[in-house]
Amino acid sequence: MPVKKLIQIRPVVESAVKLALSGTNVKYELGYDPDLKTVEADEGQIKQVIQNIVLNAAESMPDGGTVTVGLHNTSFAEDTPSLRAGNYLKITINDTGIGIPPQYVSKIFDPYFTTKKKGSGLGLATSFSIIKKHGGVIDVVSTVNQGTTFTLYLPATSKTVEAVTSKTGIVYGKGKILILEDEDLVAAVAKDMLITLGYSPDVAATGEDALHKYSEAMEKGDPYDAVILDLTIRGGMGGKNTMNSLLELNLAVKGIVASGYAQDPVMADYTEYGFKGRVMKPYRIEELSRTLSEVISKQ
Length: 299
Known about the structure:
5-stranded parallel sheet; globular; alpha/beta; single chain; Heat Shock Protein 90
């Protein structure tokens, strides 16, 4: 199930599009209403949906082309067969690729259905499930040799995005966090802190276990919003190598390096190793809360 928070959709979508198209010969164009409404959504899951669709669009244009993305406010005065009356954020993703044969259009959201030699058939099925759990719908129109357009609707709100900060300097939030920590006491303290801050924590004692949990969560469409990785793990893969492996699974992984050794090269220059943030051990709840808030909000 999605862990929702109030988000601005444009930076989330644009970040996902850029990531999906990096290293390809496909460009993108983004059009949007200047007064876009906000949505209550799981940022990581929405990015996953956009990346899945845009990756398919890029693959449908092997000779290059342009993916056109639109973000617009819309509303329905009355209930439709698939949506209740109300305000929505409409996302369109259009390509000019090879298109989808008519006999396949009705099957593309079915689990394990794929026309790719190396495809899993789970990308669009997962996307369909994510949007449905957000109270929205996803639809597709395609013409062979002309292109494909995916249209997504997400319930919209007029609320404004503001950080919730206490007088003590603690920043509360929401999300699913994976902690790599082999010391039981430290892991228990970290879990208690994260629960207090509003997060849903999970612990892995080894890098191998962390990779398994992260991969499994992605496959279920319920990814972690961030991972906190201890640099030194006895008898197993530590934070640095674990981060390298996580980046192979998901370039958008939001990793935070943790250590009690401030002079460690990874702590000193953490961005060079793929991390988005760092925290010193022993954990202090103020620093942990601010770092998590900053890392999760990064695009």
